[in-house]
């Protein structure tokens, strides 16, 4: 394994910025100092650039196995690394659904061969596999995923007794998709009765999958978690009202209930459906400008703990269907960090806060072993940025297998120039080293 010397970087880490050199050896950060004169096998002059801990994305759908016409672990991890994401946690609604330990292990084996980024996979909870869920090893699996509301795939957990069992017995982190299915079905029937199925449009999506549906389900999850002292993590908060369910008065390491915001809920609002249509159709839905601003506020005041992508690609053909047939979800890993950096350029968030929400806090939240920080003795997961290198998202520079992005035509001011994964230079000024692979994430849990 090559050693790497990074010279003259501006490090953004643990709430401060400072100039330093970083020496990487055998996968780990060996030395951080104002001046390191030891030669590296690879040397990077980082003068004028910013060195951040690699982003950790706790919610992606890479579509392998079973849906590889949309994406696969190799293609999407390449896009992630190009976007400064060095580790991901992938969801169980692949085909077949990841509802057994054997299917879970198959994913790990695939990733060990094909993933450019570090990886972990959620074990899926269904209505009838609790015994299998309880076999999950908390030291080498990120968590257990529960769909408390339907999404892509058939993993809705709607049985009260099953939910009680999961929340009372699972000893590790339980991550939930929270939308109330009964409310959504009721709303959908009302809209169909008024407009007909052919008359439904993307603009109606946040009215069908509305704030009430989200709050009913999220508040139910919080209630169950408090009742059973469950380690609960609620994914993709999309409404302002839900942010009040979360606490910002205690340190993250002591929280039993945490929450995530996604880039698309921070960037888009319901006004964008007119131009973007199904390309911003996600579950939960992108909602109002007021919701967006309240989610952003909750992110800044620490009611919301982490930023993720919910990267969930579909083909252009699938997205181009009528609203009622077009699947929900879109690709985001290549553009998440640069999108957040636009908010930095606009004065809405600091670099330190972006690093906290996209790296430090994810590592704390999931108790990831030796990652998420620029520290001596930690794995070298790093991304180097040029904050003044404008570029425009186009089909020519998109790495997603699906070949499109909701950000097409958007100019970003910042560019990822280098990404180091577990001490290996995987991405270098637009070039991916196809020989390098990521590592399985491990967790510091009892």
From TrEMBL:
Cofactor: Zn(2+)
BP-aspect Gene Ontology terms: purine nucleobase catabolic process
Keyword Metal-binding: yes
Protein keywords: Hydrolase, Metal-binding
Pfam families: Amidohydro_1 (PF01979)
GO cellular component: cytoplasm
Domain Amidohydrolase-related: 50-426
GO molecular function: allantoinase activity; metal ion binding
UniProt-listed CDD domains: DHOase_IIb
Primary role: Catalyzes the reversible cyclization of carbamoyl aspartate to dihydroorotate.
Family: Belongs to the metallo-dependent hydrolases superfamily. DHOase family. Class I DHOase subfamily.
Name of the protein described by the UniProt record: Dihydroorotase
């Amino acid at each position: 394994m090559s050693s790497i010397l990074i010279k003259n970087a501006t490090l953004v880490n643990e709430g401060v910025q400072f100039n330093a050199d970083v020496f990487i050896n055998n996968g780990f950060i060996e030395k951080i100092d104002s001046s390191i004169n030891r030669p590296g096998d690879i040397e990077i002059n980082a003068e004028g650039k910013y060195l951040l801990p690699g982003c950790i994305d706790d919610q992606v759908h890479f579509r392998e196995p079973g849906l590889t016409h949309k994406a696969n672990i190799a293609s999407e991890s390449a896009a992630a690394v190009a976007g400064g994401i060095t580790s991901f946690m992938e969801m169980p609604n692949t085909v077949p659904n990841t509802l057994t330990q054997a299917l879970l292990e198959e994913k790990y084996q695939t990733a060990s061969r094909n993933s450019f980024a570090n990886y972990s996979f959620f074990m899926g909870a269904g209505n009838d596999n609790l015994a299998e869920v309880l076999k999950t090893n908390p030291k080498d699996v990120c968590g257990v995923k529960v769909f408390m509301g339907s999404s892509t795939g058939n993993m809705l957990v709607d049985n009260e007794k099953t939910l009680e069992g999961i929340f009372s017995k699972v000893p590790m982190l339980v991550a939930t998709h929270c939308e109330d299915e009964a409310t959504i079905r009721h709303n959908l029937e009302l809209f169909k009765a008024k407009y007909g199925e052919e008359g439904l449009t993307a603009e109606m999506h946040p009215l069908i999958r509305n704030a009430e549906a989200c709050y009913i389900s999220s508040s139910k999850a919080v209630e169950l978690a408090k009742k059973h002292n469950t380690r609960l993590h609620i994914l993709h908060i999309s409404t302002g009202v839900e942010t009040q369910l979360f606490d910002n008065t205690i340190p993250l390491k002591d929280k039993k209930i945490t929450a995530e915001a996604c880039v698309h809920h921070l960037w888009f609002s319901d006004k964008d459906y007119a131009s973007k249509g199904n390309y911003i159709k996600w579950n939960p839905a992108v909602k109002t400008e007021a919701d967006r601003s309240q989610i952003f506020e909750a992110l800044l005041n620490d009611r919301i703990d982490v930023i993720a992508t919910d990267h969930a690609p579909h083909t252009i053909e699938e997205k181009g269907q009528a609203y009622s047939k077009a699947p929900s979800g879109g690709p985001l890993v290549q553009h998440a960090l640069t999108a957040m950096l636009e908010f930095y350029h606009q004065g809405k968030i600091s670099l330190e806060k972006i690093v906290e929400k996209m790296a430090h806090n994810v590592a704390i939240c999931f108790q990831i072993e030796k990652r998420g920080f620029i520290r001596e003795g930690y794995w070298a997961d790093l991304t180097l940025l040029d904050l003044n290198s404008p570029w425009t998202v186009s089909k020519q520079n998109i790495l997603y297998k699906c070949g499109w992005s909701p950000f097409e035509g958007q100019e970003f001011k910042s560019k990822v120039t280098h990404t180091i994964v577990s001490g290996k230079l995987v991405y270098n000024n637009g070039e991916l080293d196809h020989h390098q692979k990521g590592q399985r994430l491990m967790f510091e849990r009892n």
